[in-house]
Amino acid sequence: MRTTIRWILTLAVVLALAVAGAAEGVVELVDQTGETVRIPQPVERLISVYGIGTFIVYALGAGDRLVMGWYVGVKGISSAPEGLLRLEPRLEELLAFGDPNVEEIIAREAQLVLVDASRHAAFADPMAELGVPVIQYLTETPEALKEAVLLTGRALGTESHERANAFVNDYDRVFSTVVSNLEALAEDERVRALFLGTDPLQVASGDMYQTRLIEAAGGISVSRELQGYWNEVNLEQVLLWNPDVILIPPYGPVQPDDILGDPDWASIRAVRDGRVHRMPRVIAPMDTPVPESLLGVVWMANLFYPDLVRLDLRTEADRFYTLYYGYELTEAELDQLTGQ
Q: Which of 52, 77, 99, 215 has the greatest count of CB atoms below 10 A from its CB?
C-alpha cells in the first residue's frame, strides 16, 4: 500500500513538472539512438547518469541545474581531482556512481535525464513511463561528440545552444589546424602510438575514442585493428607492434616509470626513446569523449610533432577553461598540462 501511494505521489510530481514546463514550450529532438524526445522548457532540474554528459552540461554553462551527476572516473569524493572540486563545490551532494535507481532519480524531481545508450538503454523506458524525458548518447567518435554537444545545447535553451555551436566551431578549428600542419607527412613518417588502459597489457581498440584522438593528432594507433572496448593483449603482441609512443590515461594506477623501469619492455622503441607519457588531467579525463578532449588533441599533436604543430597548449587550455567552464587555471595546472 505504501509503495502504491509513493508511486502515485511520484507520478503527481512528474506531471506537475511537465505541465509547468509545457507552459513555456517544448523542444523536440532526435537523440543518438534515433528516439524522438520531447523536452518541456525550461529545464531547471537535470540529472546526468552519463559521466560524459555531465561534463557536457558544465561546458554549456548549465552545471548549476544539476541535481545529481555521474562523473567519469570518480567513484567517491576522495577520488575527485582537485580541479573538479574547485569547479563544483556541491560535488559531495551531487555525486553518484554505480547503477542508477529510478526512485532516487524521481525523488530529485528531475525534468531531464541524460544516459549512456550502450549501458543504460533499458533505464530510459521506466523514465518515459513516468513522463521524464531521457536523452540517450553514443559518443565514441569526434562527430558523435559534436552531435551530443549540440543536442544537449538544444535541450537546455538558447544560451547553452549558442555555447554548443561555439564549442563545435572550436573543435573543428583545432582538428583542421592539426590536419593542415601535418598534411605533408607521409604514412611512414607518422607516429605509431599505443594507448594503454588501467593495466599495462590492456589496450584501446579501433572502435574507441582514444584511437580517434590519436588519428586526429596525426598519429597511427597500432591497436586500431582490434574491436570492442578495452582489449587484453600479451607482451609479445606489444613487441610486435613496437610503438614509437606509449600513452597512459589520466586514471588508473599505471605510471610511466612502471613501463620505463620494466626490463621486459626495454626493447620497445617507445621505451628505448623515453616516449612513455601519462595524459594530464585538470577536471575531466581528456582521452574520453568529453569537451576537454579538444585539448587532448592539442596535447597529443604537440607531443607527436612538437616542431610541426602550430597550436599552443597553454593558450588553448586557458581559453577552453575560461570560456566553457568559467574556470581560471592556476600556473601549477598550466604547468601540469604542458609538462613543465
A: 52
CA distance 261 to 285: 25
Using alpha carbons only, give the angle 207, 224, 70 rounded to the nearest 5 degrees.
35
Candidates 93, 206, 169, 218; CA nearest to 324 is 169
Looking at the predicted structure, is the pLDDT value of residue 2 above 70? no
**Residue in 180, 141, 150 with CA at minimum distance from that of residue 168:** 150
- pLDDT tops 80 at residue 22: no
Distance from C-alpha of 322 to C-alpha of 308, rounded to nearest angstrom: 27
CB 227 within 8 A of CB 205: yes
115 — phi, psi (to 5°)?
-135, 160
In the chain the domains, ranked by start, together with CATH numbers, are 2-167 (3.40.50.1980), 185-338 (3.40.50.1980)
pLDDT of residue 9: 39
Q: Read off the pLDDT of each residue in 268-279 and give the average, rounded to a whole number.
A: 97
Q: What is the pTM (predicted TM-score) of this model?
A: 0.90
Q: What is the pLDDT of residue 204?
A: 97
CA distance 9 to 12: 5
Grid cell of 155 as nine digits: 535541450
d(CA 115, CA 70): 10
Distances from the Cα of 74 to the Cα of 23, 50, 58, 95, 191, angstroms: 37, 12, 16, 8, 32
Distance CA 254, CA 197 (A): 8
Backbone angles phi, psi at 146, to 5 degrees: -60, -40
Residue 226 falls in which region: left (phi positive, over 0), alpha (psi -120 to 50) or beta = beta
pLDDT in tens, 292-327: 999 999 999 999 999 999 999 999 999 999 999 999
Q: Partners of 66 in the beta sheet?
A: 46
